[in-house]
Design goal:
The chain is mainly α. The chain is 70% helix and 3% strand.
């Protein structure tokens, strides 16, 4: 009889099957998983990529501004820790509490956006941040999540009204108009567009009529076009986006430097740390244009891997929303849909802006770009998805256990012997 292989230490041998079970995304029959490890692994991958790229792209500017090349790296790591702490707390909260607090969260979002206009800090001509000591809170980031939470709850309350009456369709657009006005006062057109696109997509999924959808889309696009034409700086951005090489040292400077970074990267890039554009040629290299540095150092292959991770995350969010609706968890389903649409559009705009496909809008790359507010809110959005999936799995397990209990009870009744009558047959 063959002896077991004892060349590995016993603790290590014992840990191998455990790691194998942990990496399994479905568990086994005896211990089925009660949460989706896929969301967790994808988020951790983006955290790791973000830490590496923020470190690579921020060192030159950190050395000049703070005489410490690791200034932004330490802060980014601190933001990740804070995000994980908040995520751990939020993970214990049932989705019912999000549903009940949706109205209060909307009021908080409006108050924060209004407070920015009064006590906000102005950077590069935009007043978007509330200073709290050494830290700055960008009010627009939590406002997106809070508004989508409110909108999901509204769609549950007014589902029939949305499909049958036009006022049910336009009520959330009025709330969006208030938030959009406050955002445009900062000004922050990019966030307003993200919220508009997500709202329209969610209303369409909730059953709004196609003519309402097309009418609002047309009206929204006309409104955005009017805002661009009436604002000189927005018009300069659009013209620079269309012909960046005509003004390579003016409005088109940032885009031309970003395009040169992509061009140098080619297929497999110049290697980690070998970017030239990050040497203060490309402004905001560690925030809005971090993907340009990724393209220069890791080429098309690096961009493809990151987009594949993001695409997988978005698809999982959308399928989670569909599964929630099929299980009659309507608030959770709409919320998951909203997060998926929001993340997909923001990712597309961020990468597209750095590649010259879209005008520059100042939107971060989720979980990769430097920025505390964006990091915390995006982590919270991932936690919401994990919590929704957890509650669906627990509901399914409870239903299965109840069915098994009933089946076992019926089987026990069938096998139980009937009692004999008292007195026998003598009468």
């Amino acid at each position: 009889m063959a002896k077991p292989n004892t060349s590995l230490p016993m603790p290590l041998m014992a840990s191998i099957p455990r790691w194998g079970q942990w990496l399994s995304l479905s568990g086994d029959e005896k211990q089925p998983l009660t949460y989706d490890r896929g969301f967790l692994l994808l988020a951790l991958a983006l955290f790791l990529i973000g830490m590496i790229m923020v470190a690579s792209s921020s060192m030159p500017v950190a050395e000049r501004l703070y005489d410490n090349p690791f200034h932004f790296v330490f802060r980014h790591g601190f933001y990740i820790v804070i995000s994980l702490v908040i995520a751990a707390l939020a993970l214990t909260r049932p989705m019912q509490q999000w549903h009940q607090a949706s109205g209060y969260l909307l009021i908080l979002a409006i108050v924060m956006l209004a407070a920015v206009l009064v006590i906000g800090r102005t950077v590069n001509g935009s007043t978007r941040w509330i200073a709290l000591g050494p830290f700055n809170i960008q009010a627009a980031e939590p406002a997106k999540l809070f508004f989508f939470c409110y909108l999901s709850a509204y769609l549950v309350r007014k589902k029939d009204e949305i499909t049958e009456q036009i006022k049910g369709f336009f009520k959330p657009l009025l709330v969006l108009g208030v938030l959009g006005f406050l955002l445009l006062m900062q000004p922050d057109l990019g966030t307003a567009v993200v919220m508009f696109i997500t709202t329209i997509g969610l209303l369409f999924l909730a059953g709004a009529k196609i003519w309402q959808f097309l009418a609002v889309m047309f009206g929204g696009l006309m409104g955005i076009a009017a805002l661009i034409v009436m604002s000189p700086y927005r018009w300069r951005r659009i013209t620079a986006f269309m012909e960046p090489w005509e003004r390579p040292f003016d409005e088109g400077y940032q885009l031309t430097q970003s395009l040169m970074a992509y061009g140098r990267g080619e297929t497999f890039g110049q290697g980690l740390g070998n970017s030239i554009q990050k040497l203060e040629y490309l402004p905001e290299a560690h925030t809005d244009f971090v993907m340009a540095v990724v393209g220069e150092e890791f080429g098309f292959f690096g961009i493809f891997i990151i987009l594949l991770i993001c695409f997988t995350l978005v698809i999982k969010a959308l399928f989670l929303g569909k599964r929630a609706l099929l299980n009659e968890k309507y608030f959770e389903g709409y919320f998951a849909y909203a997060i998926g649409i929001w993340m997909s559009f923001q990712i597309a705009v961020n990468v597209g802006a750095s590649a010259g496909v879209f005008p520059t809008k100042g939107l971060t790359m989720p979980l990769i770009s430097y920025g505390g507010s964006s990091m915390i809110v995006m982590t919270l959005a991932i936690v919401v998805l994990i919590r929704i999936d957890h509650e669906l799995r627990v509901q399914t397990l409870n239903s299965a256990n109840q069915s098994n209990s009933k089946s076992n009870g019926k089987a026990a009744n069938k096998t139980r012997k009937p009692r004999s009558k008292a007195g026998g047959d003598d009468e």
